[in-house]
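## retry 2 of 3
previous attempt timed out at serialization; input unchanged, resubmitting
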Amino acid sequence: MHALLRFPVLTPIVLGSAFTLAAVVVILLIARRTTRWPALAAAGVIGGALVGVLTLWLVEGVADVFGPALGWSTRAWVVGCFAALGLAAMNWRRSTLRRKVGALLGSLVLIATSVLGVNALYGLNPTVGSLFGVATVDQLALPAPVASPSSRVATAATAATAATAAAPAAPAGLLWQTWTAPVGMPSAGTTGIEVIPNTVSGFTARPAGIYLPPAALTAHPPTLPLVVLLMGQPGNPDPQYVAAVLDRYAAAHQGLAPIVVVADQLGDPTKDTLCLDTAQFGKVESYVTKDVLPWARAHLNVMTDRAHTTIAGYSHGGQCAISFIAKYPELWGNVLDISGEEYPGADHSAGVLADIFKGNQKAYDAQKPTVILAKRPYPDTVGIFTVSTDDPAYKPGAQRVTAAAKAAGIQATYFEVPNGGHVIGALNGGLEEGFKVLYPRLGLSQQ
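## retry succeeded, writing output
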């Protein structure tokens, strides 16, 4: 079963085979020799397409199951699938048992191929397990936290300040200066899952993904910076994307990279929890700030000062990230907001205002990061805000949040990922740019 869950579904051979098989199925479904068949087949295709359009309207527009609006490519897959299923349904009319069974099996092929096609557009679920929200990494045997001089290491900014100030003691130094990779250090990091107790919040979350870089896997590991990463909605707390990026960074920096906790702020991937404490969705804000962060500091070999603690997120998680650092700058010294929503429920604000805030616009506005950021300065805080060049729905919000961060004194970097859309390209590009800025800030590289 584990091997099946880890089976890759984004490879060219898998996708090519599925698309070819679906094309054969459609050809066979069309191939009937009856007088009225062309008209019946056309009716089935048109009727199925209309059902697909109605389903999209109900699921996406009325029920708002998916949060951010689906792209037109995704909608085309859905409508095309329903059109093909309409054709399959017509094959049940006055047909042999063999054709009926073939139409039924063909329908399963068409549905599976459409799921693979939509998944390929987003590129965020590379295995069978991740496609169905089932973890494909194992429970991680965490090394015990150790007392290390590197826990007192400074950021580049504080090291420069200490060098010129008349302080009685200088910081221990930056990790890139003090750490030497030992012989036999693994060439790549490792990933796994951990169930983080919801002691304070009571929020029911899925197991968190954990990434430990190569340096953390040595006999005498350094104490490393911490990143808490929140993924999009719908989405899984999957560490493989950030692991792939950080393994490349670690390879260029003697195995050094942050330890990452990919926490689950959704519980149910179909629900937009807004990253708030609400009666409808539970205490998500408390879960991240009062359960996840204390757990990470107690169970992982990480630095506990704010300057080495980063809150990061993609899409829905990006909104969570900027909201959390705006509210709790004493906990986080850095934020990486990748294609994030501008504020909680920005894509369905009317519903959020009515359902969560009971029409209280002032209370809703008070939860918006741009409003919170305007209330106080944020010294010694670094922010990276990324969005794709071809993501018009999210780009204006990203620009407004960046401007608000700069006005609040955050050292903000704004970067547009070339042609990343709002899918895997945006995530990978945002992670790459984000850690390019964060590495020297965290003492992991000179520049």
